[in-house]
Specification:
Elements lengths: L1 H10 L8 H51 L2 H4 L2 H29 L10 H34 L1 H7 L2 H18 L1 H6 E13 L2 E12 L4 H9 L1 H33 L6 H37 L9 H15 L1 H12 L1 H12 L4 H4 L2 H5 L20 H5 L6 H13 L3 H37 L4
Antiparallel strand pairs: 1-2
Helix pairs in contact: 2-4, 2-12, 2-13, 2-14, 4-5, 4-7, 4-13, 5-6, 5-7, 5-10, 5-11, 10-11, 11-12, 11-13
Pfam families: 7tm_1
Keywords: G-protein coupled receptor, Membrane, Receptor, Transducer, Transmembrane, Transmembrane helix
GO cellular component, one term: plasma membrane
Length: 456
C-alpha cells in the first residue's frame, strides 16, 4: 500500500490535477482517521483498566472501613451514622455489581456477569440499578434528618431517633425493590447470531449471549428506549440535587443566624454549634460531590440520543468516560469522611490499632498521642501527683521517671537499718501510686477527647 502510493505520487507529480490524486488523498485521510481512532480506543482501554482497578480497590476497602467505623459504639448511637452506614453498604453494592462488571466487560466481553445464566442476567441487572438509585435516595433522607436536627431541634429530638432511622431505611429499601423490579421481569438471557460459516453441506452459526429485552415485550422495549432515561434523570438526579441544595442552604442559613447571637449563649452551646457546622460541611461536600460525579452520566443517558453526532464510536467513548466519572462517586465518600470529620478519623485509628498485630507495627508515641497532648503540662519536680486530681489532669505520661528519681533521692537520706526495714514498703507504695496515676490519666484523657470531638 505504501509503495503503490509513493510510486503513484512520483509518476503523477507532473500532473497534479489528475483525478486519481483526490482518491489517494481520501485513502490517506481514511488511514489517518483509523489510526487516530485506534490510538484513542487503546488509550481509553488502558484508562479503564487503570482507573477502574483503582476504583474497585479504593471503593471496596473504603466503603467497608466506613461501614465498620460508623458501626462502632461511639458512632452508631447517632442517627446520622445509621444513614451513612446504609449509604456505605449501598456504595459497596455499586462497587460489586456495577464497577466490577464494567471493568470485566472492558477487559473481556465474555467475562460479563450477566451472561452466565438467565438467573444471573435478571439478578445482576436488578441489583445494578437498585444500588445505583438507592444511594441518592439515602442522601436525600440524611439531608432531611440533618435539617430537622439543626433547624427543628425539638421535633428532631422526639421523632428523629435511631429506631425511626432503621424504620425509614427499611421502607426506602423495601419500596426501591418494587420500583426497580421491572429490570428483573423483562430482561432475559438471549442468543443472538453473530456469524454464519458455510463449508460445503455444513453450515455453522456462531451465537453471542446477551442480557436484553426480548421481542415479546414491545411496549416495554419502547418505554425502555424512549422514557426510562428521562425518568431516571428526573427522579434520581434532578430531584435529589434540588432537595439537597435547598436543605443544605437552609442549614447554612440557620447556622449563620446562630453565629450572630453567639455572644449570648454559653460555651457549651458554642461548641455544639461548631460541631453542627462540621457535620454540615461534611454532608454538603458529600452531596456536592455526588451531584458533580453522577450528573454527566445521568444526563447523557437521558438526552444523549438527541444529538446526532453522539452515535457509534463517539457514543461508546463518551459513555465509558462518563461511567468512570460516575463510578468515582463510590470511592469518594470514604475520603470525604476522612478529610472532614475529626471523630471519624479518631474512631478509624482506634479500630485499626485494635486489630491483632497493629499495636506492634505502630510506634508507642503514635498510639498514645491524643488531641489533648498539646494542652498537657509537666508537674513540678518533687511534687507528688497523687495529692489532687487537677494536677493529674495536667501531668504528662512521662512524669513517672521524675517521680522515681525524687523518691530515690529521698531514700538516700534514710539510714541503712531503716531502709532495710521499710524498703519493700516504699517500693510497693511507689508501684501502686504509678498504676493509680496512669489509670486516672487515661480516664481523664478519654473524658477530654469525648468533650472535644462530637459523634456523628
Amino acid at each position: 500500500m505504501v509503495e503503490a502510493t509513493f510510486s503513484y505520487q512520483f509518476d503523477s507529480s507532473s500532473n497534479p490535477s489528475s483525478p486519481s490524486m483526490s482518491a489517494v488523498s481520501v485513502t490517506t485521510s481514511s488511514i489517518a482517521t483509523v489510526l487516530a481512532n485506534s490510538n484513542r480506543l487503546l488509550a481509553l482501554k488502558w484508562s479503564v483498566r487503570i482507573i477502574g482497578g483503582l476504583l474497585i480497590v479504593i471503593g471496596g476497602i473504603g466503603n467497608t472501613l466506613s461501614a465498620l467505623t460508623l458501626s462502632r459504639k461511639k458512632l452508631r448511637a447517632q442517627v446520622t451514622s445509621i444513614y451513612l452506614i446504609a449509604l456505605a453498604l449501598s456504595d459497596l453494592g455499586n462497587v460489586f455489581f456495577s464497577v466490577l462488571n464494567f471493568y470485566l466487560v472492558r477487559l473481556d466481553p465474555q467475562q460479563n456477569m450477566r451472561v452466565h445464566s438467565n438467573l444471573a442476567c435478571k439478578l445482576h441487572i436488578f441489583f445494578t440499578y437498585y444500588f445505583i438509585n438507592l444511594s441518592p435516595t439515602l442522601l436525600v433522607a440524611v439531608s432531611v434528618q440533618r435539617y430537622l436536627a439543626v433547624a427543628k431541634h425539638h421535633y428532631s429530638k422526639r421523632h428523629c431517633t435511631v429506631k425511626n432511622a432503621y424504620i425509614i431505611i427499611g421502607l426506602i429499601c423495601f419500596f426501591s425493590i418494587f420500583i426497580q423490579l421491572h429490570w428483573a421481569i423483562f430482561y432475559e438471557l438471549q442468543l443472538i447470531p453473530v456469524k454464519e460459516i458455510s463449508t460445503g453441506m455444513n453450515r455453522t452459526i456462531i451465537y453471542r449471549r446477551v442480557c436484553n429485552i426480548t421481542s415479546d415485550y414491545p411496549q416495554y422495549m419502547w418505554f425502555r428506549s424512549h422514557m426510562i432515561g428521562y425518568i431516571q434523570w428526573f427522579f434520581f438526579t434532578l430531584c435529589p440535587f434540588v432537595v439537597m441544595l435547598i436543605l443544605n442552604s437552609l442549614i447554612l442559613k440557620v447556622i449563620a443566624s446562630a453565629r450572630r447571637i453567639q455572644e449570648r449563649i454559653n460555651q457549651k452551646n458554642q461548641r455544639k454549634k461548631a460541631k453542627q457546622r462540621n457535620m454540615t460541611i461534611m454532608l454538603l461536600s458529600v452531596s456536592c460531590v455526588f451531584i458533580l460525579l453522577t450528573a454527566p452520566a445521568s444526563t447523557f443517558m437521558g438526552f444523549g440520543h438527541l444529538f446526532k453526532n453522539l452515535h457509534g464510536p463517539n457514543s461508546q467513548s463518551l459513555w465509558t468516560m462518563f461511567s468512570l466519572i460516575y463510578y468515582a462517586n463510590t470511592a469518594a465518600n470514604f475520603l470525604l469522611y476522612f478529610l472532614t470529620a475529626n471523630v471519624f478519623r479518631q474512631e478509624l485509628r482506634v479500630m485499626i490499632l485494635s486489630l491483632p498485630g497493629c499495636s506492634k507495627v505502630v510506634p508507642p508515641s503514635a498510639r498514645l498521642s491524643t488531641p489533648n497532648a498539646a494542652n498537657l503540662t509537666t508537674v513540678g519536680e518533687g511534687v507528688l501527683p497523687t495529692t489532687t486530681t487537677p494536677i493529674l489532669r495536667k501531668s504528662q505520661l512521662t512524669t513517672f521517671a521524675s517521680l522515681n528519681s525524687t523518691i530515690c533521692r529521698s531514700q538516700d537520706t534514710i539510714s541503712d537499718p531503716y531502709q532495710k526495714r521499710n524498703g519493700t514498703e516504699l517500693l510497693l507504695r511507689n508501684s501502686i501510686s504509678q498504676n493509680h496515676n496512669q489509670t486516672l490519666i487515661h480516664n481523664n484523657i478519654d473524658h477530654d477527647v469525648d468533650d472535644l470531638d462530637s459523634p456523628l
